[in-house]
Amino acid sequence: MFSNPQPRTAVQQMAPYSPPSGGRAEKLRLDFNENTVGCSPKVIEYLAKRLTGSQLSIYPEYADAMRDLAEFFKVDQKEFILTNGTDEAIQVMINTFVDDGDEVITLKPSYAMYRFYAELAGAQVTEIGFPADLSFPLDALLNAITPKTKAILIANPNNPTGTALSLDGVQKILETAPQAAVLIDEAYFEFCGVTALPWINKHKNLLVSRTFSKVYGMAAMRCGCLFSSADNVQWMHKAQSPYSVNTLAALAARAAVQDREYIENYVAQVLEARQLCCDGLTRLGIAYFPSQANFVLFQAGDRAIAIRDTLRERGVLVRDRSYEIAGCVRVTIGTRAQTERFLTELERVWK
Prior knowledge:
Blueprint: H1 9-13, E1 28-29, H2 41-50, H3 53-56, H4 63-73, E2 80-83, H5 85-97, E3 103-108, H6 112-120, E4 124-129, H7 138-144, E5 149-155, H8 167-176, E6 181-185, E7 206-211, E8 224-227, H9 230-238, H10 247-258, H11 260-283, E9 288-289, E10 295-299, H12 304-313, E11 316-317, E12 319-320, E13 328-332, H13 336-350
Parallel strand pairs: 1-11, 3-4, 3-5, 5-6, 6-7
Antiparallel strand pairs: 2-8, 7-8, 9-10, 10-13, 12-13
Helix pairs in contact: 2-10, 4-10, 5-6, 5-9, 11-13
């Protein structure tokens, strides 16, 4: 008699992750922290010029992309790997440094894929909660570190809270857990300016990830970078699929980093619009949490889901986070015009 194959215990015990990503076309997308106007036009021009039919028939080659990205990020080519978005960076890190049953520390709430890949590996996950004001729980995290801690995963700034950790805080974590692989996920680096990337050789337990999904406007491409010392990168290469980043993504990344003016202009717009959003929320009497990223978390109380749904009917998408932080909704910050539209629609709904 035949029976179905049984999944690993870790898979059976995991909660599924199902992002609400359908039906977003033609709406104002302020729900996923993406670039709200799209990638640099030079990326599209570059792809049209460089992409040929023959390139699609061969496996990706990364030499040119690695050279250009190493120059842009000011690292050696041996000090990073290209990844299929930050998700693969997390997966490769876990696969390289974490065994079944090992201790892994994350924050709660934070990016769901940290826990996802840690649980998938069979790790024991410790989540450090935020206090009521959502300030970074550094002392609680440091106290949770034990000699058995094998990995610590931190988004800086954190999603969805917008909370940022200082470099002094990063250093305390690295020094308290020298035996652990410490990932500082800098997906929103451009909006806060704090980076640990120059420290990858000073602290051998440090890993830093960057993504092209946010400020660069290339979420559909699924491309990122994972940085660490050359020794760590050599180990991670062994744990990574050899062609996980597609040719289009590698080409697009090369073009994206060349148009620095586009990125600087977009960041300036977002920072201006973030202040506009906070001022608008204050005017409406809506409490919010200070953010160092391209989003703001505000308190809608028991109306959180209703406000999300009503805004969606009006063509504005925001993200309910009340299942993690009671009564909270997160709004992505884009341009000034987009933020003004959000505030106008929110005021109609709120009153």
